[in-house]
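TA notes, week 10

Several of you asked for a full example with nothing omitted. So below is the full record: structure tokens for the whole chain, then the designed sequence directly under it. When grading your own attempts, check the secondary structure regions first.
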């Protein structure tokens, strides 16, 4: 029989197996960046399909080509029917992971060998999104066992294999499998909770715009002593240009962007001292920007230079660099059109080029923001499930990061209720060294997902 207590007990009994499955998943270096071995991404997909089959779902590994004709990376598509007339639920996660970065910056010898230290399991993909991936088969298996071999609702699980490289085949995949993916409720399990032990629904996500800006000042490199003075090198010219993107307070200066200086009233308060500790801000370093701290994180635009072509120190010489390219990433507020944001950024850069340098701007990415609501039947069910599963009142939060394909899901399935849930916490360090998953939260997350699916299917009354 499916009850809150029976779900809790079943997850508690299964938890060593859940941790073992997460450890096994971390051991597969499923880095989807093209510079890495893509055979490992396929191995990861096959492993995840096996976990879902063991949970009683029909699962296959499949892919579709990207719009430019290049092959899409392998995804997992699995399904199990619930009772006739029960809600159709689509659950999304991704099995690909980020590169490890600098291996020497990890506390463990191999980032792909999971290591438990205290309450956390460390390893690349342990949280983003390995914990999300292993949650689904275990929640579904427990519901099937407690439900006498039947799930309370029809469930389709889509585990993508290229989220960390921008989901290039996502729209084509949705088009190819639209009938199989159509749902009444969509659960995107790729966000964060508010704190360890405090669950959250994400109701706001910034979008993302990315461009490459190239500065040319010379047709060839020059001796900096012989020619320096009348001509400014391209790197310094670029530094002067990107410095115009923020004012003295640290706010973005690009005109025409949507910006909300006050966050939604239902968002929790984020004390500055907590943020500084969570982010690892060094003592004495001032925070930038104006307005509410959560607004600066979730509802105002930000601009970051995430890469720049500069001569490495070991190859440096007394040379005036003739050109320099900077990769500029801009997070855009909910309600901002990505195309208009690129136009605004390009216009600002063009009007602030120092000393008549030649500027070329090339767009790389334009992903929309997400603005949802938890005040829907599915949202209220999720709040109940998270609150019950964690034993602490769930909160609504925003995220400064972007999941652009959520807008694609909304436009493809306009009648579906979209829920954005998470497994991460402020110390998860996703995409960074020493990524980890809090195991106490992992247990509570599996309980909460099982409760949510049972609630959506009417097997448990709130």
């Amino acid at each position: 029989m499916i009850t809150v207590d029976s779900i809790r007990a079943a997850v508690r009994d299964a938890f060593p197996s859940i941790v073992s499955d997460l450890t096994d998943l971390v051991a597969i270096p499923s880095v989807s960046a093209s510079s890495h071995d893509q055979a490992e991404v396929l191995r990861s997909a096959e492993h995840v399909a096996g976990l879902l089959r063991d949970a009683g779902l029909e699962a296959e590994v499949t892919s579709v080509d990207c719009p430019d004709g290049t092959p899409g990376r392998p995804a997992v598509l699995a399904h199990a029917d619930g009772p006739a007339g029960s809600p159709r639920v689509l659950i999304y996660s991704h099995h690909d992971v980020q590169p490890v970065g600098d291996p020497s910056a990890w506390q463990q010898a191999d980032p792909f060998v999971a290591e438990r230290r205290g309450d956390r399991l460390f390893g690349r993909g342990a949280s983003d999104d390995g914990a999300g991936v292993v949650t689904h088969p275990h929640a579904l298996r427990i519901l099937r066992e407690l439900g006498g071999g039947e799930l309370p609702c029809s469930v389709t699980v889509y585990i993508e294999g290229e989220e960390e490289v921008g989901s290039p085949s996502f729209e084509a995949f949705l088009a190819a499998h639209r009938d199989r993916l159509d749902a009444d409720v969509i659960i995107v399990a790729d966000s964060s909770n508010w704190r360890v032990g405090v669950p959250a629904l994400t109701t706001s996500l910034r979008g993302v715009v990315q461009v490459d800006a190239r500065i040319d000042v010379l047709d060839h490199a020059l001796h900096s002593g012989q020619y320096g003075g009348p001509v400014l090198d391209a790197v310094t010219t670029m530094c002067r240009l990107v410095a115009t993107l923020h004012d003295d307070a640290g706010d973005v200066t690009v005109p025409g962007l949507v910006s909300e200086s006050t966050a939604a009233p239902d968002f929790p308060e984020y004390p500055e001292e907590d943020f500084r500790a969570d982010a690892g801000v060094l003592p004495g370093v001032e925070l930038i920007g104006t307005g509410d701290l959560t607004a600066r994180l979730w509802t105002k635009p930000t601009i970051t230079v995430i890469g720049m072509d500069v001569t490495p120190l070991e190859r440096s010489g007394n040379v005036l660099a003739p050109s320099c390219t900077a990769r500029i990433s801009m997070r855009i507020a909910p309600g901002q059109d990505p195309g208009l944001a690129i136009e605004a950024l390009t216009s600002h850069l063009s009007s602030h080029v120092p000393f008549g340098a030649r500027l070329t701007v090339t767009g790389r990415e334009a992903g929309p923001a997400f603005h949802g609501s938890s005040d829907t039947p599915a949202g209220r069910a999720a709040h109940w499930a998270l609150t019950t599963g964690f034993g602490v009142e769930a909160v609504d939060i925003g995220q400064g990061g972007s999941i652009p394909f959520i807008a694609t899901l909304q436009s493809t399935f306009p009648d579906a209720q979209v829920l954005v849930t998470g497994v991460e916490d402020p110390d998860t360090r996703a995409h960074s060294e020493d990524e980890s998953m809090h195991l106490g939260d992992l247990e509570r997350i599996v309980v909460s997902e099982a409760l949510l699916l049972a609630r959506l299917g009417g097997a448990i009354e709130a």
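The CA atoms of residues 455 and 461 lie 6 Å apart. Use that as a sanity check on your answer.
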